[in-house]
Design a protein that fits this description.
8 strands, FMN reductase, 20% strand, alpha/beta, Rossmann fold, 8 helices
């Protein structure tokens, strides 16, 4: 996991308050990869928009390729360990998640889905999530809506309305010109960052999923001890 400057908490600008945390999860397989590049650009746009709202932010980037074996182990044993467990905790305690996957045969990657499968069923409940995907051709862009969005909706995440798909040609466009009648990639990234930042800025800071044992009385209380 890598960190970058970034995110705050809502409130009056200038007050001394803890910053926001944006967890970026991507399933890019190469180094470098266009999936990581899109994830970074989305994070930068979100942080920039939060800063404009007077809220500093921190970005924590999680590369799933580094956890590939650990993810399979967690599926077999039923629980994650080590660095994978720590990164999952980072996600559940974040103020928002940016999730980006390459598309293979018109859907998200197996590694991306396997990672989501080992999360607690309530880990992303109410979590603001911005979706992104990369692929070879713009024809696959709808996979964000018929494949990725329903997946996060099932997990009860608060998926923002704007998502970003980047085809191979999008990265090659000189000067960010429009492609096939659509909006240029930099503009789509900026719009997505504004959308996520607005949602994050309007919310209280998360502390992770509620502790199911938080209200359980201690044995000392049950015995009436001091």
């Amino acid at each position: 996991m890598t960190a970058a400057p970034g995110t705050p908490q809502p409130g009056t600008p200038g007050q001394d308050q803890p910053g926001r945390t944006i967890a970026v999860v991507h399933a890019g397989l190469g180094q470098p990869s266009s999936t990581r590049l899109l994830a970074d650009r989305l994070a930068e746009a979100t942080v920039r928009e939060l800063a404009a709202l007077g809220q500093p932010a921190t970005v924590e980037t999680i590369e799933l390729r580094d956890h590939a074996h650990a993810v399979i182990d967690a599926m077999l044993t039923g629980f994650p360990t080590g660095d994978l467990a720590r990164d999952i905790q980072t996600i559940t305690r974040a103020d928002a998640v940016i999730a980006v996957s390459p598309l293979f045969t018109t859907t998200y990657s197996g590694l991306f889905k396997s990672f989501l499968d080992i999360l607690d069923k309530d880990a992303l409940t109410g979590m603001p999530v911005l979706l992104g995907a990369t692929g070879g051709t713009p024809r696959h862009s709808l996979a964000l809506e018929y494949s990725m969005r329903p997946l996060f909706t099932y997990l009860r995440a608060d998926v923002v309305t704007t998502s970003v798909f980047a085809a191979t040609d999008d990265w090659a466009q000189a000067g960010g010109h429009e492609h096939d009648g659509g909006t240029a990639l930099p503009e789509r990234i900026d719009r997505a960052g504004r959308t996520l930042a607005a949602v994050v800025a309007d919310r209280r800071q998360r502390t992770g999923p509620p502790d199911p044992f938080a209200t359980t009385p201690s044995f000392l209380d049950l015995l009436g001890g001091d």
